[in-house]
Amino acid sequence: MKKEGILSKVWKEPYLETCCRSALHRLCLSGALGRPEGLQDDPCLKRMQGMGFVTRSAQGRFYITEEGQARHTQEVLKRKAPLKPGVGS
């Protein structure tokens, strides 16, 4: 089996750099207020928006999505994310 085949089975999720994990944690801590644009973590928030972990309002504020919350739980809090209904059953 080629290395690409092995790695594609191991890495099913996009890698988050340390700076992006920190930005995800700050976003989670901000709760319903979200994070305004124009801060130093904008590049990470925009990258994670493309991954579906973050959404951006018309006013330019960033908010965490359900997928982002699950990734935060798994990668930042180091807990197993709960399965969505119907997944894995």
From TrEMBL:
It comes from the Bacteria. This is Uncharacterized protein. It comes from Acetobacter orientalis.
